[in-house]
Amino acid sequence: MTDQVLEALQTSALARIQASASLADLEAVRVEVLGRKGTLAGISKEMGKLAPEEKARIGKLLNTAKQSLEQALERRTAQFEDAALDSRLASEWLDLTVPAPGIRPGSLHPVTLVQKEIEDLFVSMGFAVLSGPEVETEYNNFDALNIPQDHPARDMQDTFWLEGGNLLRTHTSPVQVRGMHRLGPPLRMIAPGRVFRNEEVDPSHEHTFYQLEGMMVDREVSVAHLIYFMKTLLKGIFKRDVAVRLRPGYFPFVEPGFELDIHCLLCDGAGCPVCKQSGWLELLPCGLVHPSVLRMGGIDPEEWNGFAFGLGLTRLAMMRYAIDDIRLLQGGDLRFLSQFGKASN
Ligand code: PHE
């Protein structure tokens, strides 16, 4: 091992460091020369065989070589890093003067649109718009509507019961009860809102949907009045004549009770998944208010009577906008929902 060999080694390593074109090149030189199994380490190992004074001299030279190579590596590394930063700064920039994008205007949900229209229509005929809670008492949802405990009619509506005996209302009819107590006779009220049933979800059924309740209590109200208001309602909604049929329907809180069906507007009566291939859609159950319901609402049925109806708002919105799957309304997909009326303000 001569001094010249070490010197030559150092010179050539320094030259390679200067000539390196990337951080990867540098790393290769470092591993080869300074690494644990590198050239300098190899020389160190050989030194054991030297005489003591030779050992000290060569050891010193080795250290100097090591230090100068390490410094050169560091300097070159810094150069590469600076260059990388410069080119990043040149290519990436932020224009802080560009104006922020505007707020995306929202749009009303199809059910809300239909609801507002019907509210306007009924308000113009002297009806008050009431709302009731979605968590109801068992009494308001069932008992006060003439559906006593253990009566088979309770099975008509699969119910979500809550701990403590309350429930998620299965229909908007409990607002009839609240309305009777609050307004007293004579009264005209509607009550739109969300209702819940323990339903299997399919194109026309959801566990969560919207109804619009209506009730009128006055003197000598007849089925003719009921039919008049229902026809006015349908004409207002569809802006054209829609074929309807009236069937007897059983609801414990009305007597007589009816199912008002409309011709399915999606398939024009031909049959589709939404109308279950029947061509008809149950849209408007209604009837004359049962005397027991009036009595439980604090109204004397000898003096007053009335009609009530429960419109399927969700279903109506589907008819109105030709939506063939109820799940689209609950899905929260803005691409779908924003197709309907833009908010005007
Ligand atoms: N509440 C009934 C239901 O959801 C509908 C209804 C309301 C029927 C008012 C008659 C009168 O099934």
Topology:
Elements: H1 3-19, H2 23-34, H3 39-46, H4 52-91, H5 110-123, E1 128-129, E2 135-136, H6 138-141, E3 167-168, H7 174-183, E4 187-196, E5 208-218, H8 223-238, E6 244-248, E7 254-263, E8 280-289, H9 291-296, E9 305-312, H10 313-320, H11 327-330, H12 334-337
Parallel strand pairs: 1-4
Antiparallel strand pairs: 2-3, 4-5, 5-9, 6-7, 7-8, 8-9
Helix pairs in contact: 1-4, 2-4, 5-10
Short description:
41% of the residues lie in helices and 17% in strands. The protein is of the alpha+beta class. Bound molecules: phenylalanine (PHE).
Notes on the structure:
- This protein has 345 residues and is of the alpha+beta class.
- The protein folds into two domains: 3-92; 110-337, Bira Bifunctional Protein, Domain 2 (BirA Bifunctional Protein, domain 2), CATH 3.30.930.10.
- The chain is 41% helix and 17% strand.
- It contains twelve helices and nine strands.
- The strands form two sheets. A seven-stranded mixed sheet has the order 1-4-5-9-8-7-6, sandwiched between helices.
- β6 and β7 (254-263) form a beta hairpin.
- α1 (3-19) runs parallel beside α4 and α2 (23-34) runs antiparallel to α4.
- The relative contact order is 0.11.
- Bound molecules: phenylalanine.
- Residues 171, 173, 251, 254, 257, 285-287, 308-310 line the site of phenylalanine.
